[in-house]
Amino acid sequence: MATKPRLAYLPAIFVLLLVVFTSVTAQSPGPESSSLHDTFLQCLTKYTKNSSSQLSNIVFANTNPKFPTVLQNYIRNARFNTSSTPKPSLIVTPQKESHVQATVICAKSVNIQLKIRSGGHDYEGISYISDEPFIILDMFNFRRITVDIKNEVAVVQAGATLGEVYYRIWKKSKVHGFPAGVCPTVGVGGHFSGGGYGNMLRKYGLSVDNVIDAQIVDVKGNLLNRKTMGEDLFWAIRGGGGASFGVILSYTIKLVPVPETVTVFRVEKTLETNVTATDLVVQWQKVAPNTDDRLFMRLLLQPVSSKVVKGTITVRASVVALFLGGANEVVSILAKQFSLLGLKKENCTEVSWINSVLWWNDNNSLKNGVKPEALLDRNLNSAGFLKRKSDYVQNAISRDGLEWLFKRMIELGKTGLVFNPYGGKMSEIPSDATPFPHRKGNLYKIQYSVNWDDRSPGAALNFTNQAKRLFSYMTPFVSKNPRSAFLNYRDLDIGVNSFGENSFQEGVVYGTKYFNDNFQRLVKIKTIVDPENFFRNEQSIPVLRGKA
Ligand SMILES: Cc1cc2nc3c(=O)[nH]c(=O)nc-3n(C[C@H](O)[C@H](O)[C@H](O)COP(=O)(O)OP(=O)(O)OC[C@H]3O[C@@H](n4cnc5c(N)ncnc54)[C@H](O)[C@@H]3O)c2cc1C
Ligand SMILES: *[C@@H]1O[C@H](CO)[C@@H](O)[C@H](O)[C@H]1NC(C)=O
Ligand SMILES: *[C@@H]1O[C@H](CO)[C@@H](O)[C@H](O)[C@H]1NC(C)=O
Ligand SMILES: *[C@@H]1O[C@H](CO)[C@@H](O)[C@H](O)[C@H]1NC(C)=O
Ligand SMILES: *[C@@H]1O[C@H](CO)[C@@H](O)[C@H](O)[C@H]1NC(C)=O
Ligand SMILES: *[C@@H]1O[C@H](CO)[C@@H](O)[C@H](O)[C@H]1NC(C)=O
Ligand SMILES: *[C@@H]1O[C@H](CO)[C@@H](O)[C@H](O)[C@H]1NC(C)=O
Predict the structure, then answer these.
(1) Structural domain total, the chain
(2) Which residue range or ranges hold the FAD-binding PCMH-type domain (predicted)?
(3) Which ligand 6 atom sits nearest the alpha carbon of residue 318?
């Protein structure tokens, strides 16, 4: 049976209508949200044993005056915040496990697609948009964080933000932390299930390398933990993307030690400085993936206006770093290894780990007196327009290659590149330990990054095309067969699934880029835990051929 009805796929629509008509006797839900809303509420009432008046404040029909606000609260890319962006028929905001279980059962019974959203940071918005009729299961109420310092573990619910995780750990201990992303409003649900990395990656690996248990609601509505879901499914939801397998309610994480004092710094060069950006990148490629694993030196490359020749553009290379130790030590390490950086103690700031989190989010925050409580702020009220893409570099780019690349970046004008060094712990973990395969042999990951604030559709086309052109220029320098990509840097340019007859083959295209050889195991697990492909999205793991 076809499991994904699409408007362009009439036979499937016919099957859907039949299923809906025969399985839901009370009402016939159409695309109008009000009847779907009533049917859905009835179903939820039945499965949760809550009255429909109790449930009405967790189910938002698209006719509800609060609907636009609930929808927009966790949109983090203005590209998907327009009047033409497809909207869900309903938003369900569960408060208890039983609400999640019932939502899965009821969405399945009316055969409507379910999109799961935690922090809403997906770069392509696939947690809250779809081409077919859909419901959002919005996890923002699931934000409890329980920190147990004695056992050095914490249970974090999927709708918590990374900033909340860092803050709650810091409240209990000044010498514990957790390796995860830099942006504090990113959600645990998408971030951990897609791998999750941040500036302690060379010392402690990915977030998922430090996950020891999880709670998930499967397609039958069962609430499972590591023991009851089994090691295969537990493996899959540590990097394979949660949304292909079920609804993740929480992860149990192992805390990591951090020193009381850490060091941050930022050093910049352009093509016009004495030590040029090119010189810097040549040396950075040798040092950053191989240096002390307590040191993470991110490199940002950005076309910027020249201060030397007015009206021209140059490329700026900025090294932004976290060292899990004191300033004297990192200055002496880099004097030997990275002389072109010219790092002096005056360029360094020694801070507590939690203040390093604030500094990485905004390097002026400490100067401006921002306090750790800022990490709890969810009310961003706005977001820019953005496009991201990713690549992996396995062989250093030559000086000639860099010079050529910088010319292309200047021509394009706006798209930047972020190089995130690997090595350290990342090289020690086998590539099949989790679904995330990009371990030993990768020098660094690239994030392509372009932001704009012009609302016109022409601008969106212009800047997304610009990122694609830079990606195309990079072909000779990056991984091949497959050209690898990072799931958390969601990019629909590398392939999407239309859930027709070629669903499996379509899945292979993006699946091998995100997961290399781990893709086959993900498919096997998917086929066992969700054979009818209820948990699906534009880039979900397909079920085995013949079952699509
Ligand atoms: C400003 C910004 C900074 C970022 N920085 C980093 C970084 O430093 N490091 C990094 O690794 N990544 C980073 N990312 C990428 C980020 O990790 C991913 O976008 C991640 O998927 C976001 O998780 P979320 O819960 O906020 O997103 P959502 O959009 O809510 O979800 C993303 C995906 O996960 C699924 N999902 C969400 N919750 C659940 C759940 N409970 N159960 C099952 N499936 C679920 C969704 O359906 C969707 O497919 C950044 C993104 C942004 C916008
Ligand atoms: C649902 O029912 C439970 C008891 O079964 C109750 O504790 C809860 O407050 C009810 N309401 C909601 C909105 O869940
Ligand atoms: C979405 O648009 C509304 C207005 O239509 C605006 O108030 C809100 O800030 C926007 N949010 C984002 C993330 O762009
Ligand atoms: C680093 O410190 C030196 C000495 O104080 C100073 O001249 C230089 O501008 C600083 N560099 C940066 C990037 O701040
Ligand atoms: C740049 O380098 C030249 C020679 O290599 C040197 O004479 C000059 O002082 C340097 N300028 C700066 C600003 O460091
Ligand atoms: C913060 O970074 C900007 C570049 O984005 C730089 O110009 C500025 O000097 C930095 N401020 C501090 C305090 O390091
Ligand atoms: C397209 O991008 C170029 C280069 O950044 C810019 O100069 C131009 O204004 C953009 N056009 C639109 C319509 O946004």
Answers:
(1) 3
(2) 84-258
(3) 4
